[in-house]
Amino acid sequence: MATFDSSILENLEEKFTNTKIIIDNINExxxxxxxxxxxxxxxRQNLESKRLSIEMELGTLKEEKLKQDKLYExxxxxxxxxxxxxxxxLILFNNT
Length: 96
Description:
The protein is mainly alpha-helical and 96 residues long.
């Protein structure tokens, strides 16, 4: 009868154990990178949301500025017309 060398089994068990450890390490890295990817995606979405809010606020401010510019120009024009009429009236009164 042939004798069986148990060291072969021990060697195989060690290789299985080492392979399992490698697989576990790879799974941990996969989970780590998946979590990091999810976190980056959340941050990207938050930044996109902030960007859109800022763009909307900027648009509102620019629109308001245009309205105020137009109001200012109209007010200055009307003021100058009134001032001119007052100056004409003063000249008339001073000539009498």
